[in-house]
């Protein structure tokens, strides 16, 4: 796809099984030539979580090049709803109606704007002018407790029900997808991640990692994964980093790991700046 853009983006993505689990139920996709990135986290403890997350990213990979912003968003939503229906049918056919589900976060960029679409507790962060902002809001039990003022955000991390999500692709017949739209700005960096990352790496560390990456998406992804593994990540860990620049040249792909859900990690030790 060749078209002139007001912004150019580069990206990298990687998924790792972590230090405890035997199966990677996470999956990710990075399609900078389309302006589409996603992370999906299969529901742990349920049947076929890895099938659900891979089905999501494989279906999103089939999104056609958009002719308009609304057409792009409609295509993404249609594909998420399609997977939701397929998972419900698969659950009834093969798993006695047990839940086959997955979270998903999607970043879609078109010309000078972007949208975050999500279901569940995987997240999208944006670093702009040195300030980190979480653009998504978890669909989880502990987030509801935080919203009600019953616990603090710090207590939410340690809450015994911190893994309980209230919404997922495949969990109900009707899929509800939240969305926030944002204008793009040169210098923006986005992080998409499963909860295996944000439960082991703090917001302050996320800010420092992105800020010191010199807009190198591949190095940032390596550093995030490595830091989580150093802390004996008990969950799968998946990150996608996207950088926005002002260049108006034809969009080209810069993806370190284009295979959804890859569990390999080459040269995992990045420079020591992320520990400082």
Give an overview in words.
It is a single chain. The chain is an alpha+beta fold. The chain has one domain (8-275): PPM-type phosphatase domain (Phosphatase 2c, domain 1, 4-Layer Sandwich). Helix content is 28%, strand content 25%. The chain contains seven helices and ten strands. The strands form two sheets. It has a five-stranded antiparallel beta sheet with strand order 1-10-9-6-7. Strands 2-3-4-5-8 form a five-stranded antiparallel beta sheet, covered by helices on one side. The longest helix has 26 residues, at 69-94. It is globular. Mean pLDDT is 85; it is low at 249-276.
List the helices and strands and how they pair.
Elements: E1 8-16, E2 26-31, E3 36-42, H1 49-60, H2 69-94, E4 102-110, E5 113-119, E6 123-128, E7 131-134, H3 141-147, H4 153-158, E8 178-183, E9 189-193, H5 195-198, H6 203-211, H7 217-230, E10 237-245
Antiparallel strand pairs: 1-10, 2-3, 3-4, 4-5, 5-8, 6-7, 6-9, 9-10
Helix pairs in contact: 1-2
């Amino acid at each position: 796809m060749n078209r002139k853009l007001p912004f150019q983006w580069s990206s990298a993505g990687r998924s790792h099984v972590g230090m405890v689990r035997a199966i990677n139920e996470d999956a990710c996709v990075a399609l900078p030539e389309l302006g589409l990135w996603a992370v999906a986290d299969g529901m742990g403890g349920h049947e076929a979580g890895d099938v659900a997350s891979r089905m999501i990213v494989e279906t999103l990979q089939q999104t056609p090049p958009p002719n308009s912003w609304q057409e792009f968003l409609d295509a993404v939503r249609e594909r998420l709803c399609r997977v939701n229906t397929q998972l419900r049918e698969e659950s009834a056919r093969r798993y006695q109606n047990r839940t086959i589900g997955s979270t998903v976060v999607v970043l879609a960029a078109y010309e000078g704007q972007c949208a975050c679409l999500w279901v569940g507790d995987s997240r999208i962060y944006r670093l702009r002018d040195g300030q980190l902002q979480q653009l998504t809001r978890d669909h989880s039990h502990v987030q509801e407790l935080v919203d009600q003022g019953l616990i603090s955000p710090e207590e939410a991390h340690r809450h015994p029900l911190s893994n309980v999500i209230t919404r997922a692709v495949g969990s109900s017949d009707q899929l509800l997808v939240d969305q926030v739209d944002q204008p793009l700005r040169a210098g923006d960096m986005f992080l998409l991640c499963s909860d295996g990352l944000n439960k082991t790496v703090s917001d302050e560390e996320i800010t420092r990692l992105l800020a010191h990456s010199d807009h190198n998406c591949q190095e940032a992804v390596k550093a995030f994964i490595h830091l989580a593994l150093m802390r004996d990540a008990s969950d799968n860990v998946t990150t996608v980093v996207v950088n926005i620049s002002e260049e108006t040249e034809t969009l080209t792909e810069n993806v370190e790991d284009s295979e959804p859900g890859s569990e390999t990690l080459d040269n995992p030790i990045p420079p020591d700046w992320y520990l400082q």
